[in-house]
């Protein structure tokens, strides 16, 4: 089974066993609900955690788990990723994709010439930026906008792009 990150435990909060979560999901309100199960990986072991309480705190979420009752017990979770399993992923509408579906795809131009592979996705602001790793050339940064990304084919494991003027400084 595959697991995907939905948050990172960045610190503890208070003495009641709450942890401060930085969400890395577009579905935080769905993921972080009482009685939902998340997973944390420690020492190469996956441990299920059942959410007891949830509340917002500035740009973070504060969660407590049934498995941990106090500050001392929850301390060991600091800096751990919170995960969901593949079956817990929400189905996306057509034309929307999870990052893990995009990372690793081959990028080709409109003539079918291979440009490279997507190695990561950055989220600097208005739109995502796909980092394309190329052989014998520096990385290419592609804005994930419809003027550049023409077709995503998960079956063929490739993305067709139109390199607008100024995008590639070869």
UniProtKB/TrEMBL annotation:
Subcellular location: Cytoplasm
Molecular function GO labels: ribosome binding
GO cellular component: cytoplasm; ribosome
Chief location category: cytoplasm
Family in the record: Belongs to the RimM family.
UniProt free text on domains: The PRC barrel domain binds ribosomal protein uS19.
Protein's name according to its UniProt entry: Ribosome maturation factor RimM
Organism this protein belongs to: Liquorilactobacillus vini DSM 20605
